[in-house]
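Internal tracking record. Fields below are filled automatically when a chain is submitted to the structure queue. Please do not edit lines marked as system-generated. If the sequence contains nonstandard residues, flag them in the REMARKS field before resubmitting.
Queue: standard
Priority: normal
Entity type: single polypeptide chain
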Amino acid sequence: MLMRIVHETKLGYNEPVSENVFEVRMAPPGNEDQTVLGYRLRTTPAVPITTFRDGFGNQVELFNVLAPHREVVVRAMSFVRSHRRPGKERLAEVAWPGEFPPPMETLEFLQPSQLVNASPELEAFRKSLPEPSGSLADVVEMLLTEVGRRLQYEKKVTTAWTPVSEALSLGRGVCQDFAHLFLGACRGIGLPARYVSGYVNHPGETATHAWCQVWGGTRAGWVDVDPTRGTFVVDEHVVIGVGRDYGDLPPNRGVWKGSAKETISVSVKVEPVERMPSDWTDVGSQVVRNGNGTTHRRKYQNGNANAMVMSGGRVMLRQQQSQQQ
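SYSTEM-GENERATED OUTPUT FOLLOWS
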């Protein structure tokens, strides 16, 4: 399936701000399950963009807006052909408990993380799970069923930074909460699993989506599953990046200098297309190509906006507040 994806983020300020440092994760990677035919990024105001890879291999674009401004618009367009290998069939060939010991590169996906935190609520959920048995596909389907029984899908009851323990207490949440609970269940039984941020071709979806990947062993590799829908992922999904939880790969984050209040709006449009147009210059002249680029290390604090006093004005710390749905 060939899909055209347009992801636009608008940041507005009630008075001019300056020294806006901004990073985004909107570039889909090419791999065995998807082919990227094109990707372009445009910013308004137009500024130079630096491309680098984070610690999980995800592509990140970083830019600075130094002139005073009241609005920043980031618009990414990509054309991606999805050709995902059948996940359930791959895991059906693997007997539980799968590959043991797991390879070194999967070990960090067995540990608690900021939002998939160790807690009495998560431990109680793990103890309620049936004993894993059968093939790895059977185990994954059991976990998907139990997550679906424990959480009810409902918007605006959790935030982008709600830990899995709080979502369990509420019994409700959106896709990132379903993904975090599934990750906590997998890690509790010793199955490496990681968080996925991306897009899905589904009517009514206007935001980025979240799901998971489980480690199926050296032969099967990472297999995508969607806990919100309770299914193995097929060709409607497009991966942007992976991490331990949402905190590792928010769609955008950064800092700005000033005393203004910020508003953010996000729109995502995913649509199947017959072919990639020969001319799609409406995105603009700024082009970001997949590649390692130059690596920059910059420390950002996780959480909602926080204020720090600095000479010359107030510096605000921003992470995207909208949830993945």
